[in-house]
């Protein structure tokens, strides 16, 4: 009887958990479509400003902080985008693991990383381990707004523009989860600043592949840029917009990834809870059948004993 009571208790508690998991899955399912669309719709704008910055720095010989910082400054900033809530599978743990690996690589390279964390789970993890954190942000990791992106970009911008003597940093890294699709989300490490200069590739087309009369291909002329009022002022105006757009894109990608991870985790948890209930129900039925069989055996044995005594 005791075993049956224990099995009934486990079935009831597992049923309650199954309802919670199912509710969380339904909530995540209702949010994922919007989060995915917002992330995908914001990506072209972030890519456009990134391409514009790449075009400017690759075709100009400049010494602006957007492409170059003091080489003798070992301090670098690392921003980790984690989640506020749990029940998202390995989402936050993957971010933390990648962040730890990045911090270790920077330490081995002689750098002095300064950690910035967004998300309550990551903040709790590093505070519990007494890790120094330069700044933290919490709230709405599954639906971040422009205000959060502005606050984070301002803090990182201030740290990057400070000189080394005042505690400034020479590089900015961000660790986030890129949303690929509903099943695949990939943890990425992005160096926001300084911008890596990529040589512009010249694509060959019908007009570009024409040959001269001597049979030699024409030399393609790279586009030239005129900066008004000046190059430094243009880049000073671009830099904060570039940082904010990149951070906002990463926040939206991370939000979509978190929601997708939570939906997948809750779907798996719901299936596991149902399988466990089925297994416990079979054990309960087997225990009940064994108990009934034992009672019938005792009754039959007692009746046989009484009949034998009367004879």
In terms of structural class, how would the helical and strand content be classed? Answer: alpha/beta
How many domains? The number is: 2
Instruction: Calculate the mean pLDDT score and round it.
Output: 81
Provide the succession of SSEs.
HEHEHEHEEH
How many distinct beta strands? Answer: 5
Count of individual helical segments: 5
CATH level 3 topology of the largest domain: Pyruvate Kinase, Chain: A, domain 1
**C-alpha-based Rg, rounded:** 31 Å
Tell the overall outline.
elongated
Q: How much of the residues is beta strand, in percent? A: 5-15%
- The CATH architecture of the largest domain would be 3-Layer(aba) Sandwich
Order of strands across the widest beta sheet? 3-2-1-4-5
Question: Please, could you describe this protein's structure?
Answer:
By secondary structure, this protein is of the alpha/beta class. It folds into 2 domains: 1-19 and 265-299, Helix Hairpins, CATH 1.10.287; 24-197 and 224-262, Pyruvate Kinase, Chain: A, domain 1 (3-Layer(aba) Sandwich), CATH 3.40.1380. The protein has 5 helices and 5 strands, in the order H-E-H-E-H-E-H-E-E-H. A 5-stranded mixed beta sheet has the order 3-2-1-4-5, with helices on both faces. Helix 2 (91-108) links the parallel strand 1 and strand 2. It starts with a helix and ends with a helix.
Please tag this protein with its features:
311 residues, alpha/beta, Helix Hairpins, Pyruvate Kinase, Chain: A, domain 1, 5-stranded mixed beta sheet, 5 helices, 58% helix, ATP_synth_F1_gsu, membrane, ATP synthesis, CF(1), ATP_synth_F1_ATPase_gsu
């Amino acid at each position: 009887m005791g075993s049956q009571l224990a099995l009934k208790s486990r079935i009831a508690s597992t049923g309650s958990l199954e309802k919670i998991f199912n509710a969380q899955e339904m909530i995540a399912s209702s949010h994922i479509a919007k989060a995915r669309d917002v992330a995908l719709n914001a990506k072209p704008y972030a890519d456009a400003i990134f391409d514009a910055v790449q075009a400017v720095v690759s075709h100009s010989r400049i010494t602006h902080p957007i492409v170059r910082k003091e080489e003798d400054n070992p301090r670098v900033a690392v921003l980790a985008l984690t989640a506020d809530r749990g029940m998202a599978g390995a989402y936050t743990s993957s971010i933390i693991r990648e962040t730890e690996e990045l911090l270790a690589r920077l330490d081995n390279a002689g750098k002095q990383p300064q950690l910035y964390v967004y998300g309550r789970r990551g903040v709790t993890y590093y505070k519990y381990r007494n890790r120094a954190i330069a700044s933290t942000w919490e709230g709405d990791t599954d639906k971040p707004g422009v205000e959060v992106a502005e606050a984070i970009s301002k803090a990182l911008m201030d740290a990057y523009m400070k000189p080394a003597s005042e505690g400034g940093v020479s590089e900015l890294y961000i660790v986030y989860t890129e949303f690929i699709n509903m099943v695949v989300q990939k943890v990425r490490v992005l160096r926001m600043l300084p911008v890596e200069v990529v040589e512009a590739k010249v694509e060959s087309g019908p007009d570009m592949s024409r040959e001269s009369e001597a049979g030699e291909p024409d030399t393609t002329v790279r586009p030239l840029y005129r900066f008004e009022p000046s190059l430094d002022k243009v880049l000073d105006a671009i830099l904060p917009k570039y940082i904010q757009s990149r951070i906002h894109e990463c926040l939206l990608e991370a939000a979509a990834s978190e929601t997708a991870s939570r939906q997948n985790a809750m779907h798996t948890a719901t299936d596991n809870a149902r399988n466990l209930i089925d297994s416990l129900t079979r054990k309960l039925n087997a225990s009940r059948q064994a108990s009934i069989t034992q009672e019938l055996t005792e009754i039959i044995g007692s009746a046989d004993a009484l009949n034998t005594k009367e004879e």
